[in-house]
Amino acid sequence: MSTTTGRGVAVVTGGTAGVGRAAVRALAASGHDVAVLARGRAGLDGAVADVEGAGRRALALPTDVSDHSAVRAAAGRVEEALGEIAVWVNAAFVGTLTFATDSDPSEFRRVTEVSYYGQVHGTLAALERMRPRDSGVIVNVASAMAYRAIPLQAAYCGAKHAVKGFTESVRTELVHERSAVKLCMVQLPGLNTPQFDWNASRMPRHPMPVPPIYQPELAGRAIAFLAERPRNNMWVGISTAYTILGERLAPKLLDLFLGRTGVDSQQTDRQLPRWGSNLFEPRDEEADRGAHGSFDEQAHSGDPVLWMSMRRRALLAALAAVCSAVAAGMARCRGRSGRGEPLSPRRAR
After folding, report:
1. By C-alpha distance, which of 32, 69, 76, 39 is closest to 54?
2. Does 3 fall in a domain?
3. Is 179 helix (H, G, I), strand (E, B) or coil?
4. How far apart are CA 29 and CA 220, in angstroms?
5. Quick one: 241 and 341 in the same domain?
6. 18-29 vs 216-228: helix axis angle to the nearest 10?
7. Could you list the pLDDT tens digit for every one of the 349 residues in the chain?
């Protein structure tokens, strides 16, 4: 049985599969009613079943996020059916796996329209309703590739770089307004999602995430955390941390490393399902694909970076306490030494 009491209403774009689906489940489990904006009918039905199974209210809205008017209209329907939107998650994207010189300009355009402009449209639709109320949280799903591009994903990397720049710019505008609306990003590693069974690939072998691979529930957990404890940026995955930090410290070395390893590391010789490209048409219209892809046996379900990030305040407080104790101990030692006292008693010999 669904209930109207809880943590408020959340909207998730791209909520039928992968990270978006994991976010839908995590938000419902934490007490949110959830509206799902996506294209595939079977995926929408599956996401609604997940939310209602958690005892929350759900709303499925077939929406192509590249259409700004459609996203705005969907926001209005959400508030009419469920109430004021408290959380908006922009997770929808499409991708390709091919050399840039082998790509058609229409593919670049489509990836940009969904993966970048889709987040612009979602953010603007959310702000249109949140700013007058001076409350709300928006989470833009980004990637380590918003900081460090890799081969074969030029369109996607370009879109994620754009998402990062857009988010940071709009955040400064909210600061200028002294707005209480929070605009967050979450940076993700390679995840075990259906993306690799339906992206537009021209490569000879089956696409795969760059290892180490993580389960999408980690991303869902991070998004649900930001919905309640918003911050500017959150990293998921050790590989996200070393990719972003490596780009800051040694970008040329990463160029050389990725140029030599990045093409093969995104392909596997395994015979895995291919459902056709979802670039222009949904591939979960007739079958619900869920959150997971084909790499369960390789994917990690835990992440120390996320664990520490979710406990950042407690860890910093513990570190401060340790540092204070050490500093006090050193001060006592210096005081004894200045008075000529021995640091420890010794038996005369």
Report:
1. 32
2. no
3. coil
4. 11
5. no
6. 50
7. 455 557 899 999 999 999 999 999 999 999 999 999 999 999 999 999 999 999 999 999 999 999 999 999 999 999 999 999 999 999 999 999 999 999 999 999 999 999 999 999 999 999 999 999 999 999 999 999 999 999 999 999 999 999 999 999 999 999 999 999 999 999 999 999 999 999 999 999 999 999 999 999 999 999 999 999 999 999 999 999 999 999 999 999 999 999 999 999 999 999 999 999 999 999 999 999 999 999 999 999 999 999 999 988 777 777 677 787 777 777 777 776 666 655 555 544 4
Which structural domain range is residue 75 located in? 8-310
The reply to whether 38 falls in a domain is yes
Beta carbons of 234 and 184 less than 8 angstroms apart = yes
**What CATH number does the domain containing 171 carry?**
3.40.50.720
Examine residue 2 and state whether it is found in any structural domain, yes or no. Answer: no
> Degrees (nearest 5) of the Cα angle 63, 98, 189?
65
Q: Report the pLDDT value the prediction gives residue 347, as an integer from 0 to 100.
A: 46
- The whole-angstrom separation of Cα 327 and Cα 136 is 42
Beta strands 182-187; 206-207: pairing state: unpaired
Written as six digits, the tokens of 264 are 């093969």
Token reading at 317: 């407080």
Kindly state whether residues 229 and 318 are assigned to the same domain.
no
Residues 132 and 185 in one domain: yes
Residues 6+ apart with CB under 8 A from 338: none
Is residue 64 within 8 A of residue 280, CB to CB? The reply is no
The DSSP output letter for 247 is: H
Could you give the number of structural domains in the chain? 2
Same-domain status, 82 and 135: yes
Residue with tokens 């953010």: 123
Question: Are 103 and 34 members of one domain?
Answer: yes
Alpha helices of the chain — where are they, by DSSP H?
Answer: 18-29, 41-53, 68-81, 105-115, 117-133, 154-177, 195-198, 216-228, 238-249, 251-261, 304-310, 312-338
Rg (CA), the chain: 23
